[in-house]
């Protein structure tokens, strides 16, 4: 099971709520739509959100409806359709999708189904090929704070990034029965939506940025993505775990910026 333990914080910019969507937006230019992970928040991409508007991009981060979607419809395909509805609502064209963890998986599925709407795809620590359990044996350990703390620290190369604030939020989430059911539903959906057979037919320009020490989606997963996608580039960030845009935001931005420029995106 692939769980993305990134703490949700609201960034300083005010949330926009309209048309049934909640999002933040900044800048003008080609739209970059950011898709966060299962337990991720908008602030996970704060570095990208602050950097690229000055480079002539409109950066938009919608909240995926993790908590509001009916449990029976809580799956990767539903979130892909949500992205379609959001792009249609915003009347966007030639978007660049950037997704971490489950967000990367949603981006891959959306790009498969609506390739004409996507000019470029960027994935980091994405599910879609490989899943690893964070809760492990499940319910018996979910009440164990030290276990949750250890598993949260494993997401990052530098365990100090897993502050008490982050661990507390993860602990709270996995001990909330409804949230845990949704998490399990999404995790199972991610496994069902394995994309190994789809990737060779996807010709959209794709950038794969991966942490060399990612233990959630290990480096071999990035290599598999790169070998299966016909039009992809794989770039590594050293001393980095599952969330490169959080651990090394400056490096992440520079790699992403150069790739966008090299591909006229």
Keyphrases for this structure?
265 residues; Rossmann fold; eight-stranded mixed sheet
Write the layout of secondary structure elements.
Blueprint: E1 16-18, E2 21-26, E3 30-35, H1 46-51, E4 57-62, H2 76-90, E5 95-100, H3 102-113, E6 118-124, H4 139-142, H5 145-153, H6 164-174, H7 177-192, E7 206-211, H8 219-228, E8 232-237, H9 244-247, H10 249-262
Parallel strand pairs: 3-4, 3-5, 5-6, 6-7, 7-8
Antiparallel strand pairs: 1-2, 2-4
Offer a concise description of the structure.
The protein has 265 residues and is of the alpha/beta class.
Structure characterization notes:
The structure is a single chain. Strand 3 (30-35), helix 1 (46-51) and strand 4 form a beta-alpha-beta unit. The chain has one domain (16-139, 177-262): Alpha/Beta hydrolase fold, catalytic domain (Rossmann fold). Helix 2 crosses helix 3 and helix 5 (145-153) crosses helix 6. The chain has ten helices and eight strands. The chain has 265 residues and is α/β, with parallel strands linked by helices. The longest helix is centred in the last third of the chain and has 16 residues, at 177-192. Mean pLDDT is 85; it is low at 1-10 and 133-140. The two termini are 34 Å apart. An eight-stranded mixed β-sheet has the order 1-2-4-3-5-6-7-8, with helices on both faces.
Q: pLDDT average, as an integer? A: 85
E-strand count: 8
Radius of gyration: 17 Å
SSE string: EEEHEHEHEHHHHEHEHH
Number of domains: 1
CATH superfamily: Alpha/Beta hydrolase fold, catalytic domain
- Supply the CATH architecture: 3-Layer(aba) Sandwich
Total helical segments: 10
Helical content stands at 25-40%
Main sheet, how many strands, which sense, barrel? 8 strands, mixed
Gap between N and C termini: 34 Å
Low-confidence region ranges: 1-10, 133-140
Shape: globular
């Amino acid at each position: 099971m692939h769980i993305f333990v990134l703490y949700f914080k609201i960034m300083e910019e005010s949330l926009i709520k309209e048309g049934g969507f909640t999002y933040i937006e900044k800048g003008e230019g080609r739209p970059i739509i950011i898709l966060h992970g299962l337990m991720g928040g908008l602030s996970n991409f704060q570095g990208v959100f602050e950097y690229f508007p000055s480079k002539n991009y409109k950066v938009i981060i919608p909240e995926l409806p993790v908590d509001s979607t009916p449990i029976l419809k809580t799956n990767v395909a539903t979130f892909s359709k949500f992205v379609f509805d959001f792009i249609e609502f915003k009347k966007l064209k030639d978007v660049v999708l950037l997704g971490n963890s489950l967000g990367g998986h949603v981006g891959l599925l959306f790009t498969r189904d609506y390739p004409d709407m996507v000019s470029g795809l960027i994935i980091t620590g994405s599910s879609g090929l490989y899943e690893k359990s964070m809760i492990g044996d499940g319910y018996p350990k979910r009440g164990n704070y030290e276990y949750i703390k250890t598993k949260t620290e494993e997401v990052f190369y530098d365990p100090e990034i897993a502050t008490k604030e982050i661990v507390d939020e993860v602990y709270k989430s996995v001990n909330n029965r409804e949230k845990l059911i949704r998490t399990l539903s999404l995790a199972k959906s991610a496994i069902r939506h394995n994309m190994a057979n789809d990737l060779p037919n996807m010709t959209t320009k794709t950038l794969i940025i991966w942490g060399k020490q990612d233990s959630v989606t290990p480096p071999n997963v990035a290599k598999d993505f790169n070998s299966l996608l016909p039009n992809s580039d794989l770039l590594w960030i050293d001393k980095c775990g599952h969330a490169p845009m959080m651990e090394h935001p400056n490096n992440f931005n520079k790699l992403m910026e150069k790739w966008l420029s090299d591909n006229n995106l």
